[in-house]
Design brief:
single chain; about 550 residues; alpha/beta; pyruvate-formate lyase- activating enzyme; 4-stranded antiparallel beta sheet; 23 helices; about 15% strand; disordered C terminus
Length: about 550
């Protein structure tokens, strides 16, 4: 049976149609869609039963790498010294004994893969050490982890090794340890240079201190220096945003990422705003104007746009890891909460330190969830990779399956609405299209799924709370694999478990049973649980 997108379009409710396909608007930049509906575009897979996870992983790692295959690795450091209000990734407060124990387990996990044919038979072109706050590691522990990576991973001659961190950690002892042990790219979460805006979000340093620390790091001239800036923060007017961009240019760094603030329902930031303790965050419409301003600002100053959010000022900056991740290349994960992709499987390692360390000590990969990727994953990877670069060539997808020719109808619709321009070969995203790229990508993936399978599964995540009035009913989460809601008692037990106070694996299984999951909770399940705990303000018994 041939499926047509016009049929899918007609079958949608008006609300669903606007979320998936957008709407005709006088100003597509601010009104093409009601709001952003996902953080990252993608398609769901099938959870592998926990009893089969280890065997499946061993089979994957014993399969030799394909000759000439480009690969990457992700390492997670799950510690932060402070929690920023906007952050949804905080896991563990940093303290030395926990850090020392974790580094021991991490090194053991990395070394356990040293002789695996899947790893040693190929080349790793990009390594990203994320968190958490990886730069929070002591100089000694950072050197131990980095030297292990350089010794065990088969790094390509032109590898990129990124260390993610915070301005606070830019001191000579640490910088020199990083650079002496293979780091050639440092990505720093500045978020804003404005002292008032920074400190309202839990950042420590003043604008002057940030610029001074950056000057110190740049003085070594041994790595690409990249900054993250967030637009739409409370108190960050368009004038403040322009000053942030001015300071960015003046700092002389090599690259920058501009991220739209997503206010998650139930987050600390959303609560502070609702309580009147912080000014409201910018709405999505206001953020759209901030994105367009930054796009114009950077182009006029000669910066190259590498992706929808990333810009480079020099040839030193490649953003290789980010490009490879969007492309869906094999990704080896190491460390608690690390995620990866190998041989058609997505893997998430344990988020909780106790079971992570226990599994590593028992010579097992510390898998929390293993997902067999959908059969349309290669199509999804191809589409998302093109859109992340700012264009869509439908012929590349039709070469994979001629049924995808119907995507031209979708992109002609978006061309009429000012989101793309057709240049005779491919559809190029306009500035409005670039701002809404994640919606465009998610809908493209969903349309691919419909054209190949007849299924229309629309994903909607609880983001963009800045667009909702306080007290408005919360919408239902879609596609997270949970059929029920855990009780308060179960969430209390899970919270205690996360702090090491209960037998972790047993409680995880009980939690899974209670909410209707077959097997262990997946990464999405755990994220939803964490949000529930934040929303319900659970008190420990």
């Amino acid at each position: 049976m041939a499926y047509k997108l016009k049929d899918m379009f007609a079958a949608d409710s008006e609300e669903q149609r606007e979320l998936q396909f957008g709407r005709a608007a006088n100003d597509p930049l601010t009104e093409a869609f009601p709001r952003k509906r996902v953080v990252h575009a993608g398609v769901r897979g099938e959870v592998v039963p926990p009893a089969e996870a280890q065997e499946t992983w061993l089979r994957i790692m014993n399969t030799p790498a394909k000759k000439g295959e480009v690969q990457a690795a992700y390492i997670h450091i799950p510690f932060c010294k402070t929690k920023c209000l906007y952050c949804g990734f905080f896991q563990n407060a940093a303290h030395q004994s926990a850090e020392d124990d974790y580094v021991e387990a991490l090194i053991e996990e990395i070394e356990a893969s040293a002789d695996a044919p899947r790893l040693k038979g190929g080349l790793i072109h990009a390594v990203f050490i994320g968190g958490g706050t990886p730069t929070s590691l002591s100089a000694e522990n950072a050197a131990r982890v980095l030297s292990t990576l350089c010794r065990v991973l088969p790094l390509a001659n032109d590898y990129e090794l990124t260390l993610e961190g915070r301005i606070h950690d830019l001191v000579p002892e640490k910088i020199e340890a990083w650079l002496a042990n293979g780091v050639n790219r440092i990505s720093l979460g500045v978020q804003s240079f404005d002292t008032k805006v920074r400190q309202s979000q839990g950042r420590i340093e003043t604008r002057e201190e940030v610029l001074e620390r950056l000057k110190l790091l740049k003085s070594y001239e041994q790595c690409s220096v990249v900054l993250d800036l967030i637009y739409g923060l409370p108190g960050q007017s368009m004038e403040v945003w322009q000053h942030d961009l001015d300071d960015l240019i003046a700092s002389g760094i090599d690259g920058a990422d501009f991220y739209q603030l997503n206010v998650f329902e139930g987050s600390d930031l959303n609560k502070r705003i609702a309580e009147g303790k912080l000014a409201p965050a910018a709405t999505t419409k206001e953020q759209a104007k901030m994105y367009a301003f930054a796009h114009d600002y950077m182009k006029k100053r000669g910066w190259r746009q590498l992706s929808m959010c990333h810009w480079a000022s020099s040839n030193r900056e490649r953003s290789l890891y980010n490009a490879l991740a969007k492309k869906g290349v094999p990704m080896f994960p190491f460390g608690s909460s690390a995620g990866g992709f190998l041989e058609g499987y997505a893997v998430m390692l344990h988020r909780v330190l106790q079971p992570y360390a226990m599994l590593v000590a028992s010579n097992q990969k510390p898998i929390m969830g293993l997902v067999r990727q959908s059969e349309i994953q290669p199509f999804s990877n191809c589409a998302v990779n093109m859109l992340e670069k700012g264009w869509m060539d439908v012929s590349r997808l039709t070469a994979m399956d001629e049924r995808l020719e119907d995507l031209r109808w979708l992109y002609e619709l978006w061309a009429e609405r000012g989101l793309v321009d057709f240049n005779g070969v491919q559809y190029e995203l306009t500035v409005a299209g670039k701002f809404w790229e994640v919606n465009i990508a998610q809908t493209t993936v969903e349309c691919i799924q419909y054209l190949l399978t007849g299924e229309n599964e629309m994903s909607v995540e609880r983001i963009a709370a800045q667009d909702k009035k306080h007290g408005e009913a919360k919408e239902k989460m879609h596609g997270v694999g949970m059929n029920g809601v855990p009780s308060i008692e179960m969430m209390q037990r899970m919270q205690k478990m996360a702090k090491g106070g209960m037998p972790s694996l047993k409680v995880l299984k009980e939690f899974a049973k209670e909410v209707g999951i077959q097997g262990m909770p997946t990464m999405e399940d755990m994220r939803r649980l964490q949000k529930m705990m934040e929303e319900r303000k659970i008190e420990e018994k």
